[in-house]
Amino acid sequence: MKEFVISEAKTETAVLVGLITKDQDEAKTKEYLDELEFLADTAGAVTVKRFTQKVNGPSSVTYVGSGKLEEIRQYIEAEEDAEREVGMVIFDDELSAKQIRNIEKELKVKILDRTSLILDIFAMRAQTAEAKTQVELAQHRYMLPRLQRLWTHLERQGGGSGSGGGKGSVGLRGPGETQLEMDRRIILQRITLLKQRLEEIDKQKTTQRKNRGRMIRVALVGYTNVGKSTIMNLLSKSEVFAENKLFATLDTTVRKMVIDNLPFLLADTVGFIRKLPTDLVDSFKSTLDEVREADLLVHVVDISHPDFEEQIKVVETTLSELGCADKPSMIVFNKIDAYTWVEKEEDDLTPPTRENVSLDELKATWMARMADSCLFISAREKQNIDELRDVLYKRVRELHVQKYPYNDFLYENYEQ
User: Cα-flanking dihedrals φ and ψ of residue 15, to 5°?
Assistant: First the structure.
């Protein structure tokens, strides 16, 4: 069967397409396309051009208007004439089978949407049997409603059966219909099998969690590429894979930590992202169970990112969808070494913008809002890591005393 989702990283050139709507202004669209370019780079593609269009909403036929689609087609043809082939066009939202079919017919290059790009990166990053199974399940769920477009290269042959009299028919006939139904059945069977495998893995994981003893569980959560794995490595002295790429961590890693006389479990989890495909959230249920069963959530934020407050909202929304909104939590602002700001001129009377706020002002604002549940660190430069350990010890100790009042931690210096 023809592959639909790429599973190997290839150096290709890509064109990005996004929409400016009443719900998504030009600045927000630029932010989304910046992230989409980072996703493309992580997948191994080089972005050469961006196209945006101001509309009320996406076209149900071609996502963008016919004029903008023609503009993209002319650009692709001009690049080909100059021997600079454009390998793919990536759209910032999830496309329907109808949209993909129509866009491919017009542009005649590979068409990806944000969802298929994220799935491709997940397929690259998956290392364990669990992660590979979860990614494959999400890929099949994504592919199922888009099967018909995979077989448009087959003839729409008439005849075969029915009252059509051997002439052309409304749907696909002959080998097209046969292959389509066969693939649909194969994929449905595969989805059932993958679900069964994940249920078995989930039972194993549940047993493992029950066998971890009476210890508080702490989970590092946050947007993708905020430094969770680097913090995990610092605190637990482990070697979790960390890289300045999106979704460097797919598999949840759990390590036992001891601070002073207090043992607890620390988990590094998969990062969240805007417009995260629903199929991925469903497929990664067993991985996200580490978040659901955690006693304390440490929300890691990249304070150097220009839109970190939006990322905080995305993570909080995702946690709410997982039923974890009411769990004890704390925020750790990472990458303070990379934070930059621009001081306003004295004669500049315009209101200050986000880029005019200093790190000290941000600290004062967030510390006032969250008191001792807010820290500012640099995992890369190892700044304020001791303070993070102290706060973690305090929070975990409080939770441990509440949850296990008769557990002496097996340490003589419990009372200090």
Answer: -115, 135
pLDDT at 67 over 60: yes
Q: Which residues pair with 223 in a beta bridge?
A: 272
What is the pLDDT at residue 154?
A: 42
Query: Residue 368: beta bridge partners?
Result: none
> One-letter amino acid identity for 116?
S
The pTM score is 0.77
Q: Helices marked H in 256-384 — which ranges?
A: 278-283, 285-292, 308-321, 359-370
Q: How many Cα atoms are found within 13 Å in the side-chain-facing hemisphere of 249?
A: 29
Contact 257, 334 (CB under 8 A): no
In this prediction, residue 335 carries a pLDDT of 94
Alpha-carbon span 117 to 227, nearest angstrom: 22
Question: Confidence class of residue 242 from pLDDT cuts 50, 70 and 90?
Answer: low
More confident residue, 328 or 409: 328
Helix, strand, coil % over all residues of the chain, rounded to 5: 45, 15, 35
| Tens-place pLDDT, residues 326-340 | 899 999 999 999 998
Q: Which residues on adjacent β-strands are paired with residue 59?
A: 63
Round to whole Å and give the CA distance between 64 and 247: 29
CB atoms under 10 Å from CB of 407, counted, come to: 13
- CA count, 13 A, side-chain hemisphere, 365: 9
List Cβ<8 Å contacts ≥24 apart for 358-363. 359/303, 362/303, 362/333
For the chain, how long is the longest CA-to-CA vector? Answer: 90
| pLDDT, position 77 | 93
Residue with tokens 């542009």: 107
Q: What is the 8-class DSSP label of residue 255?
A: E
pLDDT over 80 (residue 127): no
381 C-beta neighbours (distance < 10 Å), count = 12
- What is the pLDDT averaged over residues 197-223? 81
Per-residue pLDDT band at 14 (split at 50, 70, 90):
very high
Q: Tell me, what amino acid is at 10?
A: K
CB atoms within 10 A of CB 22: 9
Amino acid at site 304: S
Q: Inter-axis angle of helices 228-236 and 385-403, to 10 degrees?
A: 80
